[in-house]
What does this fold into?
Amino acid sequence: MEPLLSAETIAARVGELGREIAHDYQGRDLVLVCSLKGAFVFTADLARAIGIPLRIEFIRAESYGDAMDSSGEVRIREVTDRALDGCDLLLVEDIVDTGRTATRLLEVLRAHKPASLKLASLLYKPSRQIVSVPVDYLGFTIGDEFVVGYGMDHAGWHRNLPYLGVVQRPSGPPTEARR
Ligand code: IMP
Ligand code: MG
It folds into this structure.
């Protein structure tokens, strides 16, 4: 597996994001909404890097199947049943690729009439964007490569890798990750 981002690099960035979020949400009713399954590791680390009281809820979208390219159709499979109305919701995503999933999840969450709604994503692939979605708290921008590890999978595998690796697509070499 070709490494893209080491566990140490990820941890340092997650720590920075945690401090920024804690500063911005001081005194608010912060609820992290973890996008299953891929964001479970990021959410666990981010939540512990945010040094203020918060709650964690879960939502699930599916668009991929086992392919490396989005099917285009996003199904929302679960949403937490605890009331989210009036809370400060921060959707936590692993990666914004075409932007369809995050857009759909934000729509579903907006219907809960939160006091505020923002998006945190560990990764963003601008080269693949189809729907524009602003990422309020972004870990890293990466190129057009399929990544696994740190919660992210290919056909269900590799979620437990502590670092981010690249699964080679048929075309082209991987590019450098950048902030
Ligand atoms: P989008 O709807 O195309 O933005 O895709 C978002 C979802 O697709 C992410 O939450 C991931 O679950 C999955 N995904 C997109 N790119 C990758 C990748 O490189 N590795 C693993 N999963 C990915
Ligand atoms: Mg996902």
User: Anything to note?
Assistant: Strands lie at 2-5, 30-36, 55-62, 75-79, 88-96, 116-124, 137-141, 146-148, 164-167. Helices lie at 7-24, 40-49, 100-110. Residues 74 and 104 are 7 Å apart (CA to CA).
